[in-house]
Design goal:
This protein is mostly beta strands and 71 residues long. Helices cover 0% and strands 34% of the residues. It contains no helices and 6 strands. The strands form 3 sheets. Strands 1-2 form a two-stranded antiparallel sheet. The radius of gyration is 15 Å and the shape is elongated. The mean pLDDT is 80.
Length: 71
């Protein structure tokens, strides 16, 4: 991983898929920060090649989380 950014609405990462370092498969994860109570659906995951935007991947968001107010 060469660069990581945690933004309010997304997680951005720059990494190499060089086959010399174990192939083109990488596993990444992210955490969601929730600041208000409610039900939130996990968004889809989108990946794009920075230099070749026509090379991309899109996966469905699966599941949701419900946050209740602490009493």
């Amino acid at each position: 991983i060469q660069h990581v950014e945690f933004r309010d609405d997304r997680f951005a990462v720059a990494l190499s898929l060089n086959r010399d370092y174990g192939g083109a498969n990488r596993k990444l994860f992210y955490r969601a920060r929730v600041v208000t109570p409610g039900r939130f659906i996990f968004p889809p995951v989108y990946a794009e090649d920075m230099y070749f935007p026509s090379v991309y991947g899109l996966a469905e968001g699966v599941g949701s989380v419900t946050v209740s107010e602490h009493r």
